[in-house]
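Session log. Operator J.P. requested a structure for one protein chain; no other inputs attached. Running the standard single-chain path with token output.
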Amino acid sequence: MTPERFQRISRTLDRRQPDLTVIMEGVHKPHNLSAIQRSCDAVGVLELHAVAPDRPYRPRKGAASGSEKWVEVHNHADAPTAIAGLQRRGFQVLAAHLSDRAQDFRSPDYTRPTALLLGTEKYGVSEAALACVDGEVTIPMVGMVASLNVSVAAAVLLYEAQRQRQVAGLYDRCRLDPERYRRLLFEWGYPRLAARYRALGLPYPALGPEGELLEPVPDAVRRRLRG
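Structure written below.
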């Protein structure tokens, strides 16, 4: 890893938002899934949640443009389970859903820990999921078509969240806990090495100020790299 790449990775991690995420319920078209993941990376989302019990999410590399390396994806069996898990962590879960109780998407406070729930274009968010959320938001439209493509809707919502968070200064300081920061710094900078260390159950080595390894690579890891 070059010092320049190390600095770029560090700057990206410095702006990651661990308390902003997206839940995709039943979104199955690969180009939509990957486009949402790409938008998540663009605004600093650290992890993404997919609800597709019959088809666990796999990124489509062309549409994702490499973002699958930088945004962790967690698969869930059903939406209520995914929602409840995030709510226990203190997230407000807001569904993108047109209804009488839905508010303009610019109204909520996205500086709070927030999960945005999006469903399929054809069926939207399920009734089971809507029964669990903390609120609903809608994107006003004045044309003949009643909805946006799901990946476009996700981008609109995420960029409003980014706007509010930038105003509040949430991108001006690192918001990851130190241990997670160090883990991701090594995994992003040395993905092949990190996989070998994990396979052997070994702790990651410390990194220097330019991303250099401060400890020798164990022989067991070297053998796996050659294998």
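Operator note: The beta strands are 20-25, 47-51, 72-76, 92-96, 103-104, 114-118, 135-138.
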